[in-house]
Please model this.
Amino acid sequence: MRTRPRRCGIWRHWWAMSDDLYAKDLLRWAADVSHAGQLDPHDASAVHINAMCGDRVRIDMTLDGGTVVECRHDTRACALTQGSAAILSAHASGETAQSITALAEAVAAMLRDGTPAPAGKWSAYGIFVAAAPHKSRHTCVLLPLEAAKKALNDRGS
Model:
């Protein structure tokens, strides 16, 4: 009788982490390219790079005054960063630098402190609750939000 090879504890831990982190909802967002690409012309733009893993995201925005009209992302990164960038770009219209900063703080608190996921149009960020126990992955989720904050704040200076 042939039996399955026995996997070590580390393998089981990795597999469980992978299943939790890369749920179908996250993978759907990561594959969503409806707001991918660069805007030309754009009013605000920033590139943010995760020095730890090399993930890179560029956020471009067109603005009317201080309000986002359109947002696009150019992402070369893991599924967590791609998913976060897709959610941000899909829902950023109508937002300001202050509201994007508040969103970034809410998502960071959700990951760090276990506070509830943002509500309303930002509720999709709840898919990242599974990343909370993995501190090294918090930066991946927050990378697009930090790029958006930088783009909006640099434009205002």
Confidence is low (pLDDT under 50) at residues 1-17. The chain has one domain: 24-156. Strands lie at 44-49, 56-64, 67-76. The two ends are 71 Å apart (CA to CA).
